[in-house]
Amino acid sequence: MASNDLLKGTLKPIILKLLTENKRMYGYEITQSVKELSKGKIELTFGALYPILHKLEQDGAVITESEIINNRNRIYYSLTETGKNTAKEKIAELEEFVNTLRILLKPNYGLEYVLAR
Amino acid sequence: MYSLDKEQVEIITADVQLAGITFSHLPDDLVDHICCEVEILINEGKDFENAYKIVRKQVGIDVLQKIQENTKFLIDKNYRLMKTTMKISGNISLAMLGFGTICKIMHWPGAGILLAFGFLVLCLMFLPMVLYANYKNETKKQNLFLHITALIGCITFMAGVLFKIMHWPGSALLLMVGYLSLLLLFLPTLLFVKLKSAQTKKLKSIYILGIVSLIIFAFSNMFKMFHWPGASVLMIVGAVLLIGLFLPLYTWQMFKMEGKITGQYIYIVTISMFLILFTSLLAINVSKNIVVGFVNQANNTEVINNYLEKKNVKLLSEIENKRDTLELKSKAISIKKNSDELCDYINNVQMELVVSVDNLDKANAKRVIADPMCIMAKDNWDKVNMLMIGLDGNGKAKELKQKLIQYKSNLTSNFKENTEFSKYLDNLINVTDKQNGQFTVSWEESHFYLCSIIRAISTLKELQSGVRMAESAALVNLNNL
Amino acid sequence: MKKLIYISGIVSANLMLLGSIFKVQHWPGANILLTLSVFMFCFMFLPFALLSSYKNSSPRKYKSLYIVTYIVFAVVFVGALFKVMHWSGSQYFLIIGVPLPFVLFLPVYLIQTRKEKNYSIVNFMGIMFGMAFVAVFSVLLALNVSWNIMKNYENQFNYNQNLVSNIYTEKANDDNNKNVMQKSKELCAFIESLKNQMLKITENKPENILNVEVNQMESTIPSIVLYNDDKKGNLDELKNKISVFKQSVIASDNASDELKDLSKLLFETETSVISERNGGEIITWENKEFIDFKLIIVLDALTRLESNVKFVENQLISMK
CB B66 to CB C139 under 8 A? Predict the structure, then answer.
């Protein structure tokens, strides 16, 4: 299970990525799919989720529509045009970051460096 | 796949409302989320009650509020700014108040300024911010009234306390207005709002009880502050209701609902302990102003002593000039010498008292004794106890008593046949023990036990006065022989 | 265990309440109740409740905050107990106990929760209001002195009363000083009548009045008697009579210069003093003598005045 410190800052891109792949999602669905895709290794608590969703909505990256399902209002979130652009940027940013991390964390980085010479 | 029916959804919605979640479509988000989690558990074979209980353990009211708080924090710039200002202003004002209190207690300079600024920041920055922040969380209309009354009441009350501390005029009016707006506007409105949100009858009655007893208790405080009759009865009724009834009921409710010790519970018990303790401490205390009465007495006695001293010098010189009997002259001189010695001794005792209480050097001590208003800790009594009575009862007072008795017997030996004089002397310098019921209270104890330094100084000056008067009477008697 | 904590919380609060009521009403047993309650609070409720709360919190954070909270509040309550009981060492309560929440608890609390963005606004407000409350009460306490000081007043009152009734009694018929004696008699009679009026309204004998604390601090009766009695203004009449007496002493041929100076000092009622301590507040004679018009203080001041009058009169008569 990934620690909170590591997750910080990666949640927003993760949510955006999910939204690009699915047309529209509701909150619970997002937490569940993160759990499933990461095989339970990353848990997106709903305490962290909703503030980010609202922030995205305020920034104009997502829009909401509400639908009555099973006696209650369900709020669906979907990306706007600007949101799609933001998503691309953020996802690319994260990917690059992950690649950099991978290089940094390679076990015998020093040895390879010497051999390459 | 099981889905919740209307009633079950309503239960969950009500709980989310109770937590005060009102921001945008956040309530819908949260209700839906909780419903989904509950449905999953029900599908695993649990019934609704148990399933909801499990979810609520993870998602309590505080968690829900935190989510709203975080959402607002992320979104609203003003809100963020305000919250930071609130924190900073709150800390600054409290630090100032705290240091002001310390300065006031230690008689350091600057206490007034610190307290005034502390209260100012508290009233004009912190309180409005807090209430605004709180108000933003609410949406209902009547709650605006609640916040305005709270703001006005708190500000006038705090200003009243500040005015009282600084001895500015008008504190009574401010305190009165503050108290009344808190008591008659804020608390009933709070009750009204709370009653609307309460779900069960039991919770309703607990709220009513708590706020009514709070009103009674605050009224009793107000009565006490203005010295109106009936304060103590009100105080007892209010306190008994608050501590004896509300607290156990509240505890019971907490116990049933949470099942664990929360910080909130510790906070409530600690604050109510503070409330009682401070109120009772204040009740057994009186305003510091009244020590001035002892200063008046000390100054008055000092003036008379100065007069008597001059007069006695004059009397002595009269005797020396008029009489040529050596015996009378030497008697007069020895009387004068005895009195001077005793008065000097008493002066030294005063010096020692002042030196030990205020940590002064000798020169300053002399100045302070001449003007007792300058004594810093006028109400200190335990240093007086230590010095005058001591741990084993062998303090200065005992020595002083011996010297007084010695002085009296020296004087009366001059006028053996004059019983009137010795009677006068006994009235003037009375060192006999007092009979108080079955107990005998010694002269030392009745004069110096639990005696504030300022009264002790004034008592010693009174003794000097007695000595001088006795000397004067003795010299007049000698002159008439 | 949790039940025990809840129960000990309620019991100690109730014991404290009972003890306070007993203490204020001067019933016996107050001290035992208060001691028991404070010890129960400090050594049962507070440590166990904090421990339980700490263990329940996940993840376990703020260890030092819990420890500091315990130390601070235990010290404050034990100190307050010392103060209430008048045990020796209580003066350290004010020096250590009062600043402790501000210099120890508050900084630790702020530092510990500084990084916590999620920290609820309600908790913050609660702590802040609690601390403001403690500050206000501490300042009020610092401005007050123990009720015990009223015993000192009784002492002083008795001394002055003794002077009036036992010491300055010799009344030789002295034709030379008829004027002064006449004025003194009038003044003393007037003072006595004022004192009697006040005592009559409270319907208590002097020896009783001094034992009832409420009466001692009563301030309406003295202001009624001194200001509004038949709209005549007894206070003005009193000041008038004092200055008449003073003039008669100064005008007397028999009085020595020292005595004249003395009576000028003792019976100065007109000049007001500008106090430097209270920021230039003007203090008149009546404000200085009859502080807040508290009954015991007014009675004491009047008696002192009477004793001064009789003293000066006595000195004058004894002059040859």
Answer: no
Q: How many domains does chain B have?
A: 3
Query: Are residue B30 and residue B169 in the same domain, yes or no?
Result: no
Chain B residue whose CA is closest to C290: B293
C-alpha B223/C-alpha B4 separation (Å) is: 56
Interface test with B, best of A64, A70, A77 (most B CBs within 10 A): A70
CA distance B453 to B358: 10
Q: SS3 string of B152-193?
A: HHHHHHHHHHHHHHHCCCCHHHHHHHHHHHHHHHHHHHHHHH
Is C20's CB within 8 Å of B95's CB? no
* Of the candidates C111, C125, C128, the residue with the CA atom closest to the CA atom of residue B133: C125
- CB spacing of A70 vs B75 below 8 angstroms: no
Closest by Cβ to A47, choosing from B23, B63, B74: B63
Do C54 and C63 form a contact (C-beta atoms < 8 A)?
A: yes
Instruction: Name which of B36, B68, B77 to mutate to probe chain A: the one with the most chain A Cβ atoms within 10 A of its Cβ.
Output: B36
- Domain final residue pick, C99, C125, C142: C142
Same domain, C194 and C257: yes
- What per-residue string of b and e applies to C34-71 under the rule 16 or more CB within 10 Å gives b? bbbbbebbbebbbebbbebbbeeeeeeebeebbebbbe
Token pair for B60: 């309590």
Residue at B261 is within a domain: yes
Per-residue pLDDT band for C275 (boundaries 50, 70, 90) equals low
Interface list for chain A against chain B, based on CB atoms closer than 8 Å: 26-28, 31, 46-47, 50-55, 58, 64, 66, 70-75
Distance separating alpha carbons of residues A62 and A54, to the nearest angstrom: 9
Alpha-carbon distances, residue C61 vs B47, C113, C114, C126 (angstroms): 35, 10, 13, 20
Q: Is residue B1 situated within a structural domain? A: no
B126-179 pLDDT per residue, tens: 888 777 777 766 555 556 777 777 788 888 888 888 887 776 777 778 888 888
Residue C125 distance to chain B (closest CA, Å): 7
Partner residue facing C156 (CB), from B285, B458, B469: B458
pLDDT of residue B325: 74
Chain B residue at shortest CA distance from A26: B29
Indicate the pLDDT class of residue C273, thresholds 50, 70 and 90.
low
With residue B420 as reference, give the H or E element that holds it.
helix B419-428
Q: Which of C258, C235, C260, C257 is nearest to C246 (CA)?
A: C260
Contact residues, chain C, for B463 at CB < 8 Å: none
The C-alpha atoms of residue B97 and residue B114 are separated, in whole angstroms, by 7
Query: At residue C95, what are phi and psi to the nearest 5 degrees?
Result: -75, -40
Answer for the pair C99, B295: CB distance below 8 angstroms, yes or no. no
Furthest-apart CA atoms within chain A: distance in Å: 68
Of A54, A64, A72, the CB nearest to B35: A72
Q: Are B293 and C300 an interchain contact pair (Cβ–Cβ within 8 Å)?
A: yes
Its domain, for residue B60, covers 6-67
CA B56 to chain centre: 44
Coil, strand, or helix at residue C121? helix
* Overall domain count for chain A: 1
Give the confidence band of C320 by pLDDT, cuts at 50, 70, 90: low
**Among chain B residues, CA nearest to C113:** B87
- Enter the ipTM: 0.85
Contacts of A53 in chain B (CB under 8 A): 29
In sequence order, what are the beta bridge partners of A26?
Answer: A76
Chain B residues bordering chain A (beta-carbon distance below 8 Å): 3-6, 9, 13, 23-26, 28-33, 35-37, 39, 59, 63, 66-67, 70-71, 73-75
Given an 8 Å threshold on Cβ–Cβ distance, is C102 in contact with B260?
no
